[in-house]
Design goal:
Elements lengths: L9 E14 L2 E14 L3 E5 L6 H8 L7 E6 L2 E2 L6 H10 E4 L13 H12 L5 H14 L16 H13 L5 E5 L7 H18 L2 E6 L2 H7 L2 E6 L2 E7 H6 L4 H8 L6 H6 L18 E6 L2 E5 L1 H20 L4
Parallel strand pairs: 3-8, 3-9, 6-7, 7-8
Antiparallel strand pairs: 1-2, 1-4, 4-5, 9-10, 10-12, 11-12
Length: about 325
């Protein structure tokens, strides 16, 4: 278990998680030995390119994907594998997901009233019909929509509004943990900040915890407290947000950072393209594991690579001291 502060309450813990898919006789490991903790009240980001396994981890936490090995612990209780109906209800009630595609995640044949109320119906989280309607109205108003919108259908709304409906649907359940799977990637740039600000507002007001899944490090820097970088199903670096941006060590993390566009076109044009090629790494000898190089900063490396990373880290620290504004 990767832990950085024993004083913080661990809400969710992922230990040696593996997820394997089968296609006839072919076997594909989408997640390999993933380890991390999510603390209560924080935003933990999982960042990687398409196909890296980040969404698979999120879907495994809410029990949409079966796990082939390892444990997922929610408040210290294992939630992957077989659960009693009561325990499964508790997991679904307390862990909600905001999906990537706001159009596909809503039932086009159902009114917004039903879309938002579905969880309330399933768990009977209302005392009367009046109470249910009041909760739906409050959920819609909290995301900047009007109560009269509940009689409409999803196709009558824009992409940004549909994503707000998806957030309202999750929030009406009053969950403790929300898994946000690329919640802004399908939205216009002008709408993205609104949705992120809305999610931040809920975090402050309700003490929510987020697992934020994304591929854009610039967005993640704004929104998250800690970041885990994942490549081909394996976590290669994990650190507090500012630590990761100040002292990136793994070559894959460097390639992701280099892909973030610069606002100055002259700097952007002069940038050298950094492409991570795992085949060029010398992994002979000891197998790499996720190791702590600084308090709370973990990197996937063997002992030989750790020595190189320590030397590199020292150079970066000294450079920061000499050039604090760089």
């Amino acid at each position: 278990m990767v832990s950085t502060n024993n004083e913080k309450e661990v809400l969710l813990s992922v230990k040696h998680l593996e997820v394997t898919f089968y296609n006839k006789k072919r076997r594909f490991r989408a997640v390999k030995n993933a380890n991390f903790d999510i603390y209560k009240g924080e935003t933990f980001a999982l960042v990687g390119e398409s196909g890296s396994g980040k969404t698979t981890i999120g879907r495994s936490i809410i029990r949409l994907n079966h796990t082939s090995d390892g444990d997922i612990l929610y408040k210290g209780k294992k939630i992957n594998g077989k659960l009693s109906k009561e325990d499964e209800k508790e997991v679904v009630r307390n862990i909600q997901m905001i999906f990537q595609d706001p159009a596909a995640s809503l039932n086009e044949r159902a009114t917004i009233d039903y879309c938002v109320s579905e969880g309330l119906y399933n768990f009977h989280l209302y005392e009367s019909e009046e109470d249910r309607l009041q909760k739906v109205d409050q959920a819609l108003e909290s995301v900047g929509l009007l109560p009269e919108h509940k009689s409409r259908y999803p196709h009558e709304f824009s992409g940004g509004q549909r994503q707000r409906i998806g957030i309202a649907r999750a929030m009406v359940m009053e969950p403790e943990l929300i898994i946000a799977d690329e919640p802004i990637s399908a939205l216009d740039v002008s709408i993205r900040a609104q949705v992120l600000n809305l999610m931040n507002k809920f975090k402050e007001e309700r003490g929510l915890t987020y697992l934020f899944i994304a591929h854009d490090l610039s967005v993640v820097r704004y929104f998250s407290d800690r970041i885990a970088v994942i490549h081909k199903g394996r976590i290669v670096e994990l650190a507090p947000t500012e630590e990761l941006f100040a002292f990136p060590l793994h070559p894959y993390t460097l390639s992701l950072l280099q892909a973030v566009p610069m606002p100055d076109p002259r700097i952007e044009k002069s940038k050298e393209l950094v492409i991570y090629d795992e085949s060029k790494r010398d992994l002979s000898g000891e197998k790499p594991i996720l190791q702590e190089i600084r308090p709370g900063h973990f990197v996937f490396a063997n002992d030989r690579e750790m020595k190189e990373y320590r030397e590199k880290l020292q150079e970066m620290i000294e450079f920061k001291k000499e050039h604090p504004n760089a």
